[in-house]
Amino acid sequence: MSGNPYGPYQQFAVPPMPSSPPPAPPDRLRAAAVALLNLSGLGLGYALVRRWIPMAACCAATVVLLLVALPADADGVPGAALAGYAVVLLLAAVHGAIAGLRTRLTWPGRASLALLLGVLLLAVPAGAAVGYDGAHKEAVEQSLLDRLGRADHLVTAAGRHTFGTARSDYGTALDVYKDLAVNHSGSRAAKQVPDRMRTYYETVGAAYGHKDYCAAVEPLKYLRTVPRTMPKEQLGSLTRWPDDRLATSLYECGSSSLAGGQADWVTRFGDLLDTFPQSEPAGEVAPAVDSAVKKAEKDVSGSEPCTAVEQLTSLNTQITELSTTATATATNTADGLKKAADRAARSGDAGEYACGVDQYKDGDFDAAQKTLDQFVADNKHSKNRDRAKKVSIAAEVAQTIPAAGKKLPTSASGGSISVTVKNDSPQDVTVLYTGPVTGSFTLKGCGSCRTYTFADTIGIGFKPCSSGKNYPQRTISLPAGTTYFVHKPHGGSTATPASDTAKLRSGYIYTECAYTKQTLGSGY
């Protein structure tokens, strides 16, 4: 008999097991714990409710963020990456809360313990954020220090070149220093800017230290503009660092140019008087200019008197120009300059005599005549005026008869030999003569005389100044020796002067005759 008490036809079946545990009762504490654990960025909340794919997605998002953010640099994490990661964490927290609301935890058994664990694990992303922020700030500091270093290198390299060539590099470095000081004032790099600015000033103004004063002017002027852009607290005493150096450079450069005969000394001294009128170098301008005038005066008696006269004339003009600048800034300097200008003018006028004589000796008779005529006109009371007239006459004669200029004329007058000069010309005639005695006079035109034709002059028996006619005439007394005569038309006539060389001997009476044909002629 069967062991089944219910009979052979009575059987029991076991129901199939469910595919997943039945949903747990809703638990908000558990949902909060899963959400907090997901905010750690590792998807730990998903792990406790056995949601492995979302967990892997959270871990992948965290890895991507770490790859983007590390190593920390000055640029930081892109904003889009941070925003995207924050969205992923927020979605993970919301989704985890929904999943944990009705799903039992694999561990720990109590939701309160999981919630506490979630709170504690929030320290991981928070600590990571704090650590990254510190690393980012250090990266920024290093970046700023690198910029500072590059600017320093640029200044050092620029110092090996002239200021004109390196000026743009100096400007670039200054822009970096300014940006660090103004826009990154709390950085370590900004704290080093004051020391760098001292090096900057010394490098830009290095020409002054080398006593290359002319080359130092422009860079020192440039340094005076730096306080317009850099904060004064970054410069300190450097604000006025270029002033005394620039004043000295302007004076020394101007003095050098003045001694070398270069015209830019006026500009240098003018800048000095205009910019630093009360400085010690400005007070030295008038004495330096006066010294240059005195040197030029001494040179008038030297081997190149004409050069000295030109210099005195130029000094007069330049000093007068400079005194205009000084009048508005430094009265005492202006007075000294005006005196120096007047002295240069007087000495230049007086020096024309020495210049004219030197030109005569060099055989430049045309220049000598013009110079000495100008001297006579400018110096009506000079002791050399009468001698200058004689040298001018001799220079004019020598332009027609070069032999007349072999010797410098003397101041002698008169002699024992009579020479009569007659004018057989309808035009006034000026007679110039030089030799043992030098002089000139003018004869009126002969009213009854005519201009001879060329045929007249080649005819047999032609003789101007014939007897029986009353010609304008003058008799002069000359010593024995060779006297050179030149007859030239008086006034604006273009007729060619005539000349004659007379070897005078005692016991004879000589006659010179002036007449005109197509040009002036002479005879005796």
Protein described:
The protein is α+β, with helices and mostly antiparallel strands and 524 residues long. Among the domains are: 28-121; 412-523, Immunoglobulin-like (Sandwich). The protein is 57% helix and 10% strand. It is built from 20 helices and 8 strands. It has helices at residues 28-38, 44-48, 52-69, 79-101, 111-121, 123-158, 163-183, 188-204, 206-209, 213-223, 232-235, 241-259, 265-275, 280-283, 285-300, 305-327, 331-361, 365-378, 385-400, 454-458, and strands at residues 417-424, 429-434, 439-443, 473-478, 481-489, 498-504, 510-516, 520-523. The strands form 2 sheets. A 4-stranded mixed β-sheet has the order 4-1-7-8, with no helix packed on it. Helix 1 packs parallel to helix 5, helix 15 packs antiparallel against helix 16 (305-327) and helix 16 packs antiparallel against helix 17. It is rod-shaped and about 180 Å long. The protein starts with 27 loop residues before the first helix and ends with a strand.
Note the main attributes of this structure:
single chain, 524 residues, alpha+beta, Immunoglobulin-like, 4-stranded mixed sheet, 4-stranded antiparallel sheet, 8 strands, 57% helix, rod-shaped
Uncertain parts: none
Shape: rod-shaped
Mean pLDDT: 84
Largest sheet: 4 strands, mixed
| CATH class category name of the domain at 412-523 | Mainly Beta
User: How large is the count of helical segments?
Assistant: 20
Which fold name corresponds to the CATH topology of the domain at 412-523? Immunoglobulin-like
Q: Main sheet: which strands, in order across?
A: 4-1-7-8
Q: Which range does the strand content fall in?
A: 5-15%
User: How many beta strands in the DSSP annotation?
Assistant: 8
Write down the Rg: 55 Å
Q: Give, in order, the helices and strands.
A: HHHHHHHHHHHHHHHHHHHEEEHEEEEE
Termini separation comes to: 198 Å
Helix/strand-derived class? alpha+beta
Share of residues in helices: 55-70%
